[in-house]
C-alpha cells in the first residue's frame, strides 16, 4: 500500500527544490516517482504543428517532471511540517458486516491524513 497518494500535500526534503511544497498530481507506482505541482519544473521542447482549428502548437514549455518518492514527505495537517505516515486499524460496519479499514495517520501529531 502506497503511503503517498494523489492529492496529498507534500514537502520536498532533498534536491534542487528542497523546502517547496505542492500537491501530488500523479503517482507512478512502477518507478516509485511522483509528479508534484510546482516542483521539479523542466523545459520541454515540443515539435511545432497545427491543431484542427489552424492554431499553431509546440515550442518551449515548462512542465513538472517526476521526483522520487524518497525525496518528499507528507505535510502534517497540524504543524505544516514534514511527517512520516503510520496506520491505524479501525473496524467499520457496512451493510451489516464488520470490516477492518486502515487509516493513514501522521506520526508527528497523530492526526488523520
UniProtKB/TrEMBL annotation:
<dbReference type="GO" id="GO:0003735">
    <property type="term" value="F:structural constituent of ribosome"/>
</dbReference>
<keyword id="KW-0689">Ribosomal protein</keyword>
<keyword id="KW-0694">RNA-binding</keyword>
<dbReference type="InterPro" id="IPR008991">
    <property type="entry name" value="Translation_prot_SH3-like_sf"/>
</dbReference>
<dbReference type="InterPro" id="IPR005825">
    <property type="entry name" value="Ribosomal_uL24_CS"/>
</dbReference>
<protein>
    <recommendedName>
        <fullName>Large ribosomal subunit protein uL24</fullName>
    </recommendedName>
</protein>
<comment type="similarity">
    <text>Belongs to the universal ribosomal protein uL24 family.</text>
</comment>
<dbReference type="InterPro" id="IPR003256">
    <property type="entry name" value="Ribosomal_uL24"/>
</dbReference>
<dbReference type="InterPro" id="IPR057264">
    <property type="entry name" value="Ribosomal_uL24_C"/>
</dbReference>
<dbReference type="InterPro" id="IPR014722">
    <property type="entry name" value="Rib_uL2_dom2"/>
</dbReference>
<keyword id="KW-0687">Ribonucleoprotein</keyword>
<dbReference type="GO" id="GO:0005840">
    <property type="term" value="C:ribosome"/>
</dbReference>
<dbReference type="GO" id="GO:1990904">
    <property type="term" value="C:ribonucleoprotein complex"/>
</dbReference>
<dbReference type="Pfam" id="PF17136">
    <property type="entry name" value="ribosomal_L24"/>
</dbReference>
<dbReference type="GO" id="GO:0006412">
    <property type="term" value="P:translation"/>
</dbReference>
<dbReference type="InterPro" id="IPR041988">
    <property type="entry name" value="Ribosomal_uL24_KOW"/>
</dbReference>
<keyword id="KW-0699">rRNA-binding</keyword>
<dbReference type="GO" id="GO:0019843">
    <property type="term" value="F:rRNA binding"/>
</dbReference>
<dbReference type="Pfam" id="PF00467">
    <property type="entry name" value="KOW"/>
</dbReference>
<comment type="function">
    <text>One of two assembly initiator proteins, it binds directly to the 5'-end of the 23S rRNA, where it nucleates assembly of the 50S subunit.</text>
</comment>
<dbReference type="InterPro" id="IPR005824">
    <property type="entry name" value="KOW"/>
</dbReference>
<feature type="domain" description="KOW">
    <location>
        <begin position="3"/>
        <end position="30"/>
    </location>
</feature>
<comment type="function">
    <text>One of the proteins that surrounds the polypeptide exit tunnel on the outside of the subunit.</text>
</comment>
<comment type="subunit">
    <text>Part of the 50S ribosomal subunit.</text>
</comment>
